[in-house]
From TrEMBL:
NCBIfam families: egtD_ergothio (TIGR03438). One of its GO terms (biological process) is methylation. This is L-histidine N(Alpha)-methyltransferase. It comes from Thermoleptolyngbya sichuanensis A183. The lineage of its organism: Bacteria, Bacillati, Cyanobacteriota, Cyanophyceae, Oculatellales. InterPro entries: EgtD, EgtD_Methyltrsf_superfamily, MeTrfase_dom, MeTrfase_EgtD-like, SAM-dependent_MTases_sf. Its EC number is 2.1.1.44.
């Protein structure tokens, strides 16, 4: 389904391609995840409107080195990255507030079309509209879909028969388990080459505060999932009976983010009864960390050839340029 939600404006109207999964998919994913042991729910459900706003707040935290390091890398290397962009379409996966891509668009004014792809529909549409206002020559398109599924390319004329390049910042690739990451990369390769931000392995003393900050914004972001389930699925989670933690598991090279039950309790979601033991966990996210070599192996397994990698002086973060084979 497509819709043009604004017209007669001084900027080009943003077209919305809406493939947002229905509420029923959310309900079945939540019930299935809560009946598993250990309990887990896919991180894509963290991003309702409030979740997207809380994530933006996380990006400004002193502990969250990821955003400022990746932004600095993009600033430092924008001109070089721009040489890879061509003049066709730039597709940003998990585009959120579409802030980082501005650095690329500033360096590559020849890009004709920007497609922001995100699961969080309202936030996506607002971000693409802000971009269209600030870049009046750019065709900005909002594509609301789940990037872990095959891309609906056949239904998007703007993606057909033209040079297209993908951009996947934020180290969101780390939310996927390695086999899922390869599958994502294979899907992305259908579009073309990919510029991707990947967080590097580092000590737990740096990683854990980044995902569990002193102000409690990361905790509010995770616990907002329970608020969303209460609101959208009619559940009765009592948020005062849950807390949040983030732990780095060095064996797997991943941060594990968990909601923890502070009591033995039963939660109702419609007719379903979900039991939590005292101390039982509900995983909301993984964030896998990769060395440059590890990530390049993953990319090669998905059909990309690593061409270039940019790293900051502190060796915190990588941006890779991957060429589709
Ligand atoms: C970690 S944030 C990164 C946002 C932004 N790209 C940045 O670098 O700051 C992840 C973004 O991906 C979106 N997202 C998460 N899972 C998704 C999925 N399965 N399909 C599409 N978008 C998803 C979220 O809504 C959110 O905007």
């Amino acid at each position: 389904m497509t819709a043009t939600l604004n017209s007669q404006l001084h900027y080009r109207p943003v077209k919305l391609y809406d493939f947002q999964p229905p509420l029923e998919d959310f309900r079945s994913a939540v019930l299935e995840g809560l009946q598993r042991f250990p309990k887990s729910i896919s991180p894509q459900f963290l991003y309702d409107k409030r979740g997207s706003e809380l994530f933006d707040a996380i990006c400004t935290l002193p502990e969250y080195y990821l955003t400022r390091t990746e932004v600095q890398l993009l600033q430092d290397h924008a001109n070089e990255i721009a040489t890879y962009l061509g003049n066709g379409a730039l597709v940003e996966f998990g585009s959120g507030s579409s802030q980082k891509v501005r650095l690329l668009l500033d360096a590559a004014p020849q890009v004709q079309t920007y497609i922001g792809l995100d699961i969080s529909r309202q936030h996506l549409y607002e971000a693409c509209t802000a971009l269209a206002q600030d870049y009046p020559g750019l065709e900005a398109i909002a594509l609301c879909t789940d990037y872990t599924q095959p891309l609906p390319i056949a239904q998007i004329p703007e993606l057909q028969n033209r040079h297209t390049i993908g951009f996947f910042p934020g180290s969101s690739i780390g939310n996927l388990e390695p086999a899922e990451a390869v599958k994502f990369l294979q899907n992305a390769a259908v579009l073309g080459d990919l510029i991707i931000g990947v967080d590097l392995k580092k000590p737990a003393s740096i990683l854990e505060p980044a995902y569990d900050d002193a102000q409690g914004i990361s905790a509010a972001f995770a616990l907002n999932l329970l608020t969303r389930i209460n609101r959208e699925l009619g559940a009765d989670f009592d948020l005062s009976l849950f807390t949040y933690r983030a732990r780095y598991d060095e064996t797997f090279g991943r941060i594990e983010m968990q909601i923890v039950s502070l009591a033995q309790q039963t939660v109702h979601i419609g007719d379903a009864k979900i039991r939590f033991g005292n101390g039982e966990t509900l995983r909301t996210e993984y964030s896998y960390k990769y060395t440059s070599d590890e990530f390049q192996m993953l990319a090669m397994a998905a059909g990309f050839q690593p061409i270039q990698v940019w790293t900051d002086a502190q060796q915190l973060f990588n941006i890779h340029y991957l060429k589709r084979l």
